[in-house]
Design brief:
With 180 residues, the chain is an alpha/beta fold. It has helices spanning 12-30, 45-53, 104-114, 175-179; strands at 5-10, 36-41, 60-68, 78-82, 92-100, 120-128, 143-147, 153-154, 170-173. The strands form two sheets. It has a six-stranded mixed sheet, with helices on both faces. Strands 1-9-8 form a three-stranded antiparallel sheet. Bound molecules: inosinic acid and magnesium ion.
């Protein structure tokens, strides 16, 4: 897998430092709120597991799985494959995401969870790729790990064709890997 990388964009140590920083921020804001952390599968798994283990206060864990609707045109329409199981009404909810790219997934997830009437709803994303944001998407993450350039990244949960999720760092694939 290492040979398929053009560059290691964020090494493991840097990821761990940033996760610790974000977890401290979440502790400051949510330690007394018994928040529900909603992870958007699958890309978030590593980030999620690392964040919640450093949140040393009561909280609940839940997950959503969404995918883009395979229609005739790419309108960015999303569907819920698997919804959260907890009742979120009146709860303090934090969405955890791996990457904010075009913004379609997060905008959809945000509206979907908002309809469940949480007491508050915020977004924490490990990566933000603002260059790719779709016009009309105005949602800004409340907590951001790294702002990255417009490159396709893999590792630390993120995939290309379901592979590379298990890499402990975030890397940029060599173009010949996805051009073949
Ligand atoms: P969106 O374009 O903001 O809706 O992002 C949708 C999802 O695509 C993200 O949650 C990621 O799981 C995935 N994604 C976006 N950009 C990348 C990337 O560079 N590498 C791997 N997955 C990505
Ligand atoms: Mg994701």
């Amino acid at each position: 897998m290492e040979n398929d990388m053009q560059e290691i964009l964020i090494p493991t140590e840097e990821l761990q430092e940033k996760v610790a920083f974000l977890a401290r921020q979440l502790m400051e804001d949510y330690a007394d709120k018994d928040p529900v952390f909603v992870g958007v599968l699958k890309g978030v798994v590593m980030f999620y597991a690392d964040i919640v283990r450093q949140f040393n206060a009561p909280c609940e864990l839940d997950f959503m799985w969404i995918s883009s609707y395979k229609g005739t045109d790419s309108t960015g329409k999303m569907i819920v494959q698997r919804d959260v199981t907890q009742d979120l009404e009146g709860r303090h909810v934090v969405i955890l995401e791996d990457i904010y790219d075009t913004g379609n997934s997060l905008a959809f997830t945000y509206q979907h969870l908002l309809a469940k009437k949480p007491a508050s709803l915020r977004v924490c994303t490990l990566l933000d790729k603002p260059a790719r944001r779709k016009e009309g998407i105005t949602l800004l993450p409340d907590y951001t790990g790294f702002v990255i350039p417009n490159a396709f990244v893999v590792g630390y949960g993120m995939d290309y064709n379901e592979h590379y999720r298990n890499l402990p760092y975030i890397g940029v694939l060599k173009p010949e890997v996805y051009e073949k």
